[in-house]
Amino acid sequence: MTRTFVFATIKPIKNVIIYDNKYMSIETIKQLGLSDNEAKVYVASLELGQATVQELGKKAKVKRTTVYTTIEGLKEKGLLAETKKGKKTLFIAQNPEALLAISEKRLAEIKKVLPELKSIYNAGDKEKPKLKFFEGKEGYLAVYKNILKENPKELLAISSYESWLKHVDLEFEEKWTQQRIKQGMFLRWLDFKTKATAKRAKEGKKGLREIRFLPDKFAFSSTIFIYEGKIGLMSGKAKDFMAVIIENQEFYQTFKQFFEMLFLFAKS
């Protein structure tokens, strides 16, 4: 049997002193707020056990003038301890689980300021529309879940039911409709008259909806939902589902008035 051995040359990466997964460890540790030098010295200390300043600097490839301040930073963070052995001062890495404490502290600090940040976010420019884009199956599920979550007393829809069914199956529609009814959400719906929409129209109060029909000559493929200061625009023609939810009071009022005008002249 002939065996073939393949040899590869690995080029050193500048400033990287740890190999294999240890380089990734340094990068991960830095995400907790440690400087590049602190991460290098800490990992070097884990490898060396007890070590002097000079040994840590050499192993971590950090300049001696910088090692002292780096060590102080690690001591303050609880990642390095100091001990004496004769006349020598040695430093010992603390259990890596101490990193969890740092992570938890940073998370607690973020949670502490989160209410204030949310307040600033909500007090931002109210005139500027907020847009959310959705696509694919998860996209339309997100749009319909958003409607149920907002739970408006009345939902307005300008729709092409036939096009809508290309993306949403009847089983999903039935479950969503039952949940809408359960929440007491009344649907006023403008569409084009087909067998399917005529059937829905006959359900009337049972379906907690009122459907009126637009002239066929104005037929389109998209669906528009108007609710709670939002407008949902959903494509019915595209191969893959696409939708945009726009949150803006001025746009909402404009679309709502547009709907009311059409609803007034549409046929039952």
Short description:
The chain is an alpha+beta fold and 268 residues long. The protein has helices at 21-30, 36-48, 53-60, 64-76, 98-122, 136-150, 161-164, 170-182, 195-203, 249-265; strands spanning 80-85, 88-93, 130-135, 154-158, 186-192, 209-214, 223-227, 230-234, 242-247.
- Rg estimate, integer Å: 32 Å
SSE succession: HHHHEEHEHEHHEHEEEEH
Category from helices, strands and their pairing: alpha+beta
Could you say how many structural domains there are in total?
A: 2
Report the sheet with the most strands, covering strand number, pairing sense and barrel closure: 7 strands, mixed
Identify the overall geometry.
Answer: rod-shaped
Q: Strand share of the residues? A: 15-25%
Helix content: 40-55%
Query: How many beta-strand elements?
Result: 9
Strand order of the largest sheet: 3-9-8-7-4-5-6
> What's the CATH H-level superfamily name of the largest domain?
Endonuclease Chain A
The name CATH uses for the topology of the largest domain is Endonuclease, Chain A
Corresponding CATH architecture of the largest domain: 2-Layer Sandwich
Pfam families: TrmB
InterPro entries: TrmB-like (IPR051797), Tscrpt_reg_TrmB_N (IPR002831), WH-like_DNA-bd_sf (IPR036388), WH_DNA-bd_sf (IPR036390)
Domain Transcription regulator TrmB N-terminal: 30-97
Protein name: Transcription regulator TrmB N-terminal domain-containing protein
